[in-house]
TrEMBL record:
Record-annotated membrane-spanning stretches: none
The protein's name: Porin
Signal peptide per UniProt: 1-24
Protein family membership: Belongs to the OprB family.
A Pfam family this chain is assigned to: OprB
GO terms, molecular function: porin activity
Protein source organism: Candidatus Defluviicoccus seviourii
Keyword annotations: Signal
GO cellular component, one term: membrane
Record-linked InterPro entries: Carb-sel_porin_OprB, OprB_Porin, OprB_sf
């Protein structure tokens, strides 16, 4: 089923809900609360206490391009997505410790500016995921031994458990917002929201902030491209299997305060490191001659480390980050190498403590087995205005150098922004 193209109806529905939420919860509580729709007059809180948690969000990228390398070369596009989900906590519902069930879906709309005007590989609107209503995730999760061991199985999104980082969400370009863009582009079993595959994940946290995780997923290309709205549930071993292992360690993390107390701020500055390896079986198309080749392998490493924290604050300051994702088989990987790096400063402007300023540079090397080869580079500047806990506006500017590896192409200038509302 395709969603209607009358996007103003989405905005109208959102706007109509906001005054209702404010009246139900009181304007000040609503404005400083976690959700645009408030607590539903206390019903939402009661349901959460009982073990039923609802979630919803709307994200839109409104971007324009100058000197694009496809179509007319100039233009603009809307891309948007509504995400919705529910979690059932069976420890609260039925006394089964650590057991939960999660289900989610998405309504994607709009168009892809990179395809129609940009002519580049890294999508300049990260939120574009087609024009479908689909089931996203549907899985059961069991936490054991005071959350030391976590088991998850069902229809799952790989991005939730591997490679992703919260710091990437400060950008709009799809080269990094979510995960490095070459990994999902080359592996059918690595999915990003709102797509999912059959899979299972085992994660162990033997000491606090040290995590070992292994995931195994079906690698069905048709699951991502189908028109069955995410309900193609077949499981065929001939599709191949994607397997990934990751170790991550976070240090000097700010601990949440209990019973309304202030959070505990460590003396050292926080950081996070990840190392992962992955492989996928199944037939892959040779980029040069179109024949079949079996399997794909790769690894990734990422690091983020705060280098300056403003005095008396928990998380305001400057954090550099970097990530490398490499898949050595150029005969089957259009983008074998991705390198990303950037700076994020939270609270840069006085009295705007929740805002974030970000600079990022993304490099994708194209396979030597395709023409013209070369590399695509993106330089991005973004500023997130956190207007309420549930509402942000992110003005954004991107420069795309050598789009799709074409060194003779003009540098594309992309500008606009992202808007996000949590319902």
């Amino acid at each position: 089923m395709r969603p209607p193209r009358n996007r103003p109806l989405l905005w109208a529905a959102a706007v109509l809900m906001l005054p209702t939420a404010a009246l139900a919860d009181g304007f000040d509580d609503w404005l400083h609360g976690d959700y645009a729709t408030g607590t539903w007059g206390g019903l939402r809180t009661s349901l959460e206490d009982a073990g039923i948690t609802f979630e919803g969000a709307y994200t839109t990228d409104l971007m324009a391009v100058r000197n694009g390398n496809a179509g007319s070369g100039d233009g603009w596009a809307y891309a948007g997505r509504i995400d919705f989900g529910v979690e059932l906590d069976f420890e609260k519902l039925a006394g089964i410790a650590g057991l939960s069930v999660y289900a989610s879906g998405a309504w994607s709309s709009g168009s892809n500016l990179s395809d129609q005007q940009g002519g580049n590989l890294f999508a300049v609107q990260q939120v574009f995921t087609g024009r479908e209503i689909r089931l996203s995730q549907l899985y059961v999760q069991q936490r054991l031994f005071e959350d030391v061991l976590t088991l998850k199985a069902g229809r799952v999104t790989t991005e939730e458990d591997f490679l992703a980082s919260d710091i990437y969400a400060n950008y709009v370009n799809g080269g990094i917002n979510g995960v490095p863009g070459n990994v999902p582009g080359s592996n059918f079993g690595y999915t990003t929201a709102p797509f999912a595959q059959w899979g299972a994940v085992i994660a162990v946290e033997p000491i606090e902030h040290l995590r070992f995780a292994v995931g195994v997923y079906n690698a069905d290309e048709k699951t991502i491209d189908d028109r069955r709205n995410g309900t193609r549930f077949t499981l065929d071993a001939e599709d191949g299997v994607f397997a990934v292992g990751e170790v991550s360690y976070a240090w000097n993390q700010v601990e949440e305060g209990e019973d309304g107390k202030e959070p505990s701020i460590p003396e050292g500055l926080p950081g996070l490191a990840k190392l992962g390896i992955f492989g996928e079986s199944g037939d892959r198309e040779d980029l040069k001659d179109g024949g079949d080749k079996d399997g794909n392998v790769g690894f990734y490493v990422s690091l983020e480390q705060m280098v300056y924290r403003e005095a008396g604050t928990a998380d305001q300051g400057l954090t550099p980050w970097a990530v490398v994702a490499y898949q050595p088989r150029e005969s089957i990987n259009e983008l074998p190498l991705f390198v990303g790096a950037g700076l994020v400063y939270k609270g840069l402007i006085p009295d705007r403590d929740e805002d974030s300023a970000a600079i990022g540079f993304f490099y994708g090397k194209l396979s030597g087995d395709i023409n013209p080869g070369g590399s695509e580079k993106v330089l991005e500047f973004a500023y997130t205005l956190q207007l309420a806990p549930w509402f942000y506006v992110r003005p954004d500017l991107q420069f795309v150098f050598d789009p799709a590896g074409v060194s003779s192409a003009d540098t594309a200038v992309v500008f606009g922004g992202e808007i996000g509302i949590t319902f």
